[in-house]
Amino acid sequence: MKALTTEQIRSVIARGKLKDSIFQAVGIFCLVVGLLVILLLVGDMLLRGIDRLSLDFFTNFASRRAAQSGILSAWVGTILVMFVTALAAVPLGVAAGIYLEEYARRNWVTEIIEINITNLAAVPSIVYGLLSLGIFVYAFGFGQSILSAGLTLALLILPIVIVSTREAIRAIPAMIREGSMAVGATRWQTCRYHIIPYAMPGILTGVIIGLARAIGETAPIITIGALTFIAFLPPVPFSTTGEGTAGLFDWVMSPFTVMPIQIFNWTSRPDPAFEVNAAAAGFVLMAMVLSMNALAIWLRYRLRKNIKW
Amino acid sequence: MNESVHLSKQFDEDLTGLRTHVLEMGGLVEAQARAAIHAYASGDTAAVKDIVENDYRVNGFEKIIDEETIHVVAKRQPTASDLRLVMGITKIVTDLERIGDEAKKIAKGARRVHEHGQLTLPRATDVRHVADEAIAMLHQALDSFARLDVVKAAEVIHADTKVDTEFKALVRQLITYMMEDPRTITTAIDIVWICRSVERIGDHAKNVAEHVIYIAEGRDIRHAGKEA
Amino acid sequence: MQQIENKEVPPLKAEARSLNFFYSEVQALKNINMPIYDKKVTALIGPSGCGKSTFLRSFNRMHDLYPGNRYEGEIRFFPDNTNLLSPEVDPIEVRMRVGMVFQKPNPFPKTIFENVAYGLRVRGEKNRRVLDDKVEHALKGAAIWNEVKDRLQDLAPNLSGGQQQRLCIARALATDPELLLFDEPTSALDPIATGAIEELVHELKQRVTILIVTHNMQQAARVSDYTAYMYLGEMIEFGKTDDIFIKPQDKRTEDYITGRLS
């Protein structure tokens, strides 16, 4: 083969670089399109709802009159439901993930379980709603409560938590595990001192991303029958109510509403004034999701800083 | 000896070069010894100058081979048979250089003897006979090195006893001459020195053979007494 | 296998007897018989994939961590003559007696102190004074105390590679193992750090029996008292290091250590 002349080399490079720049331009265009759509959506909601975004909006219950309507019961309900969801999904998902990664032997049973977990993540959320309606609402008798909703959403995000736990555990080098076992540690000691702490950033990220998904879910919550007009808050523990002193966990059995349902509710009203409320509430929901994602990023950064190998 | 080649061709070339140089040096030393004995036996004192001058070539070989060995050790860290070869060579070279020195001494002694002009007393042929045996030992030792032939090397070691015995006989004979005729003493002493050098050549040839056995088998048979 | 006879045989610390090992269907070790002498350094050499690491990792049952691995034969451990490979012997018990240092330094992403104290914590030691003492002793034993004594609460992964490896040695030493396994401990280190580890191995053999796998033949020659050459899962030759490196008995050993094609 004859060596290329300098001229030829340059033309080859020039051709290659042209393709480089074309791809770069296409990539930037796609990115801008995606970002613009999101910005437009958020901006549009903000513009339409800005009139309603005041402190009153957060402290008022929903009302027949659009101007005095607020999202108090909705955001409190959302936060409480999320709390229950996290409380249920984290231990279940993390334990299941650890078991599958650290304890389970690789055989056809675990193989099937793994495939099913992946499939669970793809099950439409309304199906979870139907399932919960049967189990939590009727069979267990939890009714249309915060507990039912929280558990429903917990089931919904369980696959996400399990998968992210497993991914986080897999990212830990085998030599760390071997290093621990080599000094005579048991599997549990290895999990307790190493696997769980080192997987924590990944697990937390997964949990928060799961919660961010759950926070916007409407269908399963509607299915369990939470689409009601709620103009009160769940009982604060140990506070005095009409029926005597509330217990520590009474609030979990309380009826509730959540942000997406409140929004759905408003958009289905004929009065266009409620559209403004819906836009404002939509913006608040969006802000909640984004701040959860921000929290996830910050936590991951904080926790990972001290973990390296 | 290990006949397979190294992964590093360069290493093979280095070792081959080293062995070739040792054999070249051995050839030169052997030629020097032959020439010296010939000068003594034939009275051709003109050759002495060449022999003395050629000794610098022997010394040159010693320097070159030493340098090459150091390079091989530094760059290749030889092990096992390679290590034994390289270590053995450094010792063989020392012995060869000494043989060169002995050849030079024989040549100079021959010149003194013939300048005194009295070679009638001890028959030159007796000395020559022992010297031929010593040189044959050297030749065979070098041969055994070239092929790493342990059997040949063992023969060399065995032959040394014979050379030693004959050396003693020659010296006794020379002492008799000196006692009979004190005028021969100067010459006779020179001849004793020549015999002594011949005997030393045999000793060094034996050493070379011992190094060959070490290289080939990793057995150190020096100073091992009769059982070797 | 050829064994060189020597008159004074030191006491045994362990001995592999007819050891076979299988990764599922693949036989990685074939009928290995080899002594490990007490308070001596034994080096395992051989080309990649010859089974030397596999052999090493049998001594602390590391293979039990992964499914499908199977041992046959015995590794006898002295003075109590326990068979380390027996199904009745808990691998955790084995690992409490046999320490290990890995190819790549693998300190935990915790403090220097916690790394060394870990083995003790695993054994249930909670007394702070005992922990302090043993950690210091182990760090001194691993010749790293002077470098880290003022920063025991720093994170271990911030140490240099050579320091990390010595920390890992301290971690293994803290629990007073009877046998210490080194799996190519210097392959990730520079020559200076390597030298420090080799020096350390030499000092450690006063206290503990050492089995070391190395790719570096000169290292085996420098640090070990006995050397075993392995090839394709077999023990080809075992003998005193001096003998192996000056006059090996087997042509295959000779070819390997002199760098010849065979």
From TrEMBL, chain A:
The record's subcellular location field reads: Cell inner membrane; Cell membrane
List GO BP terms, alphabetically: phosphate ion transmembrane transport
Alphabetized PROSITE patterns for the sequence: ABC_TM1
Q: Which Gene3D superfamilies match?
A: MetI-like
**What kind of membrane protein is this, topologically?**
Multi-pass membrane protein
Which UniProt keywords are listed? Cell membrane, Membrane, Transmembrane, Transmembrane helix, Transport
Instruction: Cite the ABC transmembrane type-1 domain residue spans from the record.
Output: 75-296
State which residue ranges cross the membrane.
Answer: 21-42, 74-100, 120-140, 146-165, 195-212, 218-236, 248-266, 278-299
Q: Which Pfam families does this UniProt record tie to the protein?
A: BPD_transp_1
- One annotated GO molecular function: phosphate transmembrane transporter activity
Alphabetized NCBIfam families for the sequence = 3a0107s02c
- Give the PANTHER family listed for this entry: PHOSPHATE TRANSPORT SYSTEM PERMEASE PROTEIN PSTA, PHOSPHATE TRANSPORT SYSTEM PERMEASE PROTEIN PSTA-RELATED
Can you tell me which family this protein belongs to?
Answer: Belongs to the binding-protein-dependent transport system permease family. CysTW subfamily.
| The protein, known as | Phosphate transport system permease protein PstA
| Gene name of this polypeptide | pstA
Automatic annotation (TrEMBL), chain B:
Give the GO terms filed under biological process for this record. Answer: intracellular phosphate ion homeostasis; negative regulation of phosphate metabolic process; phosphate ion transport
Q: Per its UniProt entry, which superkingdom is the organism in?
A: Bacteria
The protein's matches in InterPro entries, at most eight in alphabetical order, are given as: PhoU (IPR028366), PhoU-like_sf (IPR038078), PhoU_dom (IPR026022)
Domain spans labelled PhoU: 22-108, 128-212
- Alphabetical list of Pfam families matching this protein: PhoU (PF01895)
Keyword Transport set for record: yes
Which Gene Ontology CC terms are recorded? cytoplasm
Annotated keywords: Cytoplasm, Phosphate transport, Transport
Would the keyword Transmembrane be found if you checked this record's keyword annotation? no
Which Gene3D superfamilies does this one have? Phosphate transport system protein phou homolog 2, domain 2
Compartments, as annotated in UniProt: Cytoplasm
List the NCBIfam families: phoU_full
Q: Oligomeric state and partners?
A: Homodimer.
Q: Member of which family? A: Belongs to the PhoU family.
Described purpose of this protein according to its UniProt entry: Plays a role in the regulation of phosphate uptake.
Supply the PANTHER family for this chain.
PHOSPHATE-SPECIFIC TRANSPORT SYSTEM ACCESSORY PROTEIN PHOU
This chain belongs to the protein called Phosphate-specific transport system accessory protein PhoU
Tell me the organism. Answer: Candidatus Proximibacter danicus
Provide the organism lineage as a comma list.
Bacteria, Pseudomonadati, Pseudomonadota, Betaproteobacteria, Candidatus Proximibacter
Automatic annotation (TrEMBL), chain C:
Q: GO cellular component annotations, sorted alphabetically?
A: membrane
One Pfam family named in its UniProt record: ABC_tran
Keywords in alphabetical order = ATP-binding, Cell membrane, Membrane, Nucleotide-binding, Phosphate transport, Transport
- Ubl conjugation in keyword set: no
Describe the location of the ABC transporter domain by residue ranges: 14-257
- GO BP annotation list: phosphate ion transmembrane transport
Any one GO MF annotation of this record? phosphate transmembrane transporter activity
Asked if the Swiss-Prot or TrEMBL record annotates the protein with the keyword Transport, the reply is: yes
InterPro entries named among the record's database cross-references: AAA+_ATPase, ABC_transporter-like_ATP-bd, ABC_transporter-like_CS, P-loop_NTPase, PstB-like
Q: Which PANTHER family match?
A: ABC TRANSPORTER I FAMILY MEMBER 17
Q: Name the chain's protein.
A: Phosphate ABC transporter ATP-binding protein
Query: Coding gene?
Result: pstB
